[in-house]
Amino acid sequence: MENNLRKLLSSFRNGIFLFLFLPVYLSAEPGFKLRSIDVRAYPEVKVRFHSNTIVGPQGFILSEELSSVVRLTESYRLDPLESKNPVHLYISIPSYTNAEDRRWIIQLANQLVKISEQTGGTSKLQIQSDTNKHSFERIRSNVLDISFPFPKEPAPVYPIRNWENFLEGIPKNTSTEDHILIFVSFSPEWQDRFEIPELAKRIREKNLQLIVLAPSSLEATKLASYANGNHYPITKSDSYSELFSYLRLLGNPDYELVYFSPWNLSQWKTNSVAGSLVSVDQGIRFEFRYELSFFKSVYLKLSDPLFFFPVSLFFIFLCLAALYYLRGYEEREQGILTTPPSSLESFDRKEELQVYDRMYGETMEKAARDREIALTIAEKTPPAGTSYSYAVLLRRDGNQNSEQYSLQFEEMTIGKSESNHLVLHDPSVAGLHAKIKNKKGKYILFDCVSETGVYLNGKKLLRPKVLHNLDEIQIGKTVLSFRGR
């Protein structure tokens, strides 16, 4: 195994030497990648794409095809964007067997991360191991030197399983930027090669580009092919120049093609238009397609901030005006006076109350007294439960009781606000979360309509309940134990 690794690293060193000290004449395979098509201002069409080759603005023929009929555009504008295209790398490299191997593996990772930094992207590094997990988030090239804490692990027997674990920590790429997964392996055979189709499927689902840097083998070719990626044989010195050139070209700025459609179609009818940008002199042919439909036009209009916000404000004011009108209409239907009564009406109403009081001996004051009597009787009815002469709350931190709070007030409030008797510094706790009320020696727990709720003995508190000795109260992440005697 060590002899094979030395041969592979010898080829790697030659490739690095050529890349660093000799001019690179190798270029990546010419190709285009469509970023986005903007038809919000149709018939003006804006096409953003990336090219692996330098595209000149002249010498192109731009056409659109609709129902097998082709029309040429009168004019177009093709300009590179100002900012570079960020290239985000997720690199998985094996460990080393000696100091020489360690130095060259770190040099490979350093060159890859440096290319990502030059484009404004980020990098994540994984050291392959069958037993341990070693990953470095947002690693920088300046730390990948001799002093880098490179863990020494045995050569992985199951590289695909390592890559699957690495893939779990990578989020799905939902942007138009390039997120590239680079797998490096020195082994010509993989014991877990039967898992290749599933790994390739997960790579495609996460919208990642795959690059396999490994010896020439059927397994490496299959993985790159199934995941629509590229395989660079690690034993060829030209592979490193091609890989670095490809990554550098990905970091070049995107191009924006702006033109007016020769068809000038209606945005509210369904049409599928195919565009083609061809240059015979440069040997370039770029094809794209966009659709116009009623639903897509509505979506584009609503997603436009210059249209969405004014229309939203208009509908909000319209709803408020409708609510205000309906409220006034309901008051008029019920005969409620919206203006204060005159002095004459007040005098007549007072005389009617006096006559009613003389005839029946009942007025509003007597009704108020009846309500007070009813409340007094309710207060005299004691709630069911055990009475305690003294009670405390024990605040438990882990498995130990850290603080004790005496329930000496008639009403003890609990919450995040500093005005409470018991303050809990917890973001999930409301300002006034709960309270405990002492009613003739019986302590009643209330939930003050909090969002996360109050739990008594593991069950959510749905109505006020009388506390008993050894009851446990959970508020947010805090557990309080009730003790009474």
Automatic annotation (TrEMBL):
Lineage: Bacteria, Pseudomonadati, Spirochaetota, Spirochaetia, Leptospirales
A Pfam family matched in the record: FHA
TM helices/strands, residue ranges: 306-326
Residue ranges annotated for the FHA domain, each copy included: 412-461
Keywords assigned: Membrane, Transmembrane, Transmembrane helix
Protein name: FHA domain-containing protein
PROSITE patterns: FHA_DOMAIN (PS50006)
Species name: Leptospira noumeaensis
